[in-house]
Design a protein that fits this description.
The chain has 291 residues and is an alpha/beta fold. It has 9 helices and 10 strands.
Length: 291
């Protein structure tokens, strides 16, 4: 079984979580949700616990915590250490929330954002800084009993499943796992049209460290060079049934979260994933056992 949740249908400010909003998530068929912290250093425990209580009263589990923080691979020591402090604060927020995982992104040297390319993102020096940052965060996570879910992307320093594995192994912490998002590793036409091979490769490298997943889809645009665009699951090229099957085999009982969609498109995504799960012979775990 797999637990199906959504990264959406939630306010960005956890203080704005309401009973009506939580019930709306549950009525849409989701038993878990992603919770975002815009300023983890300034977040108060009582506010987090109050929001968690509102969600759980509606039988919605805080499936994953996410937070805003400075890039963990930045070359400037003061910026990177700020990111570490913010991420460690996010670990505390995840513990107060009772979240199943805390999502981590590797960051970028590009000043336009975490998920933007830079020629030095995959350099040994950049990856060494990332490993050092992750070790510091992992120590905090070990102390709080929080599981970290690290994600990669073809435009980041963690550009392949194998590179993600190398970094997880280098950090060497039981608190650090992998957030499975195969769309992020689509780097060209072959990957897009033969996603099954990419899925097999990703789970071969990281199946035993997978602790959460994000459900998306992608398509190739009819434009010069290569343009890969995210789209609603079921409307693109990713083999969703294979993804659900492999995810369920690698980490039964963990959370798969629909993400990167406006609220009005989430029902179509859920319908497509329901069909993919049925085709894969996988059942969604119901939240009668909500923690």
């Amino acid at each position: 079984m797999v637990r199906l949740g959504v990264a959406g249908m939630m306010p960005r400010d956890m203080r704005q979580v309401t009973a009506d909003g939580a019930r709306r998530i549950r009525a849409a068929g989701f038993t878990g949700v992603s919770c975002y912290f815009t300023d983890p250093l300034a977040t108060e425990e009582r506010e987090v616990r109050a929001a968690a209580g509102v969600l759980r009263a509606a039988e919605v589990v805080p499936a994953q915590a996410n937070a805003q923080y400075e890039g963990l691979c930045k070359a400037e020591p003061e910026r990177r250490q700020l990111g570490v402090r913010q991420a460690v604060a996010a670990v505390r927020c995840a513990a107060w929330l009772g979240a199943d995982t805390l999502y981590l992104r590797p960051g970028s040297l590009n000043e336009r954002g975490h998920w933007t390319p830079h020629p030095e993102n995959g350099s040994p020096a950049t990856l060494d800084r990332l490993v050092d940052s992750l070790r510091q965060i992992a120590r905090a996570a070990e102390g709080e009993g929080v599981t970290l879910a690290l994600e990669g992307h073809t435009i980041s320093g963690l550009d392949t499943p194998e590179r993600v594995r190398d970094v997880i192994d280098a950090v060497d912490s039981g608190a650090l796992g992998f957030n499975a998002d195969p769309v992020n590793f689509i780097s060209g036409v072959a990957d897009a049209y033969h996603s099954g091979a990419l899925l097999d490769r990703m789970f071969a490298a990281l199946g035993d460290r997978t602790v959460a997943g994000h459900a998306k889809d992608m398509r190739l645009e009819d434009r010069l060079v290569v343009h890969v665009t995210e789209c609603v699951p079921g409307e693109g090229l990713l083999d969703q049934a294979a993804f659900v099957r492999l995810f369920a085999a690698a980490c039964p009982g963990r959370w798969l979260l629909i993400e990167h969609l406006p609220d009005e498109k989430i029902p179509a995504a859920k319908q497509a994933l329901d069909a993919a799960a049925a085709a894969a012979g996988v059942q969604w775990e119901r939240e009668e056992n909500a923690r």
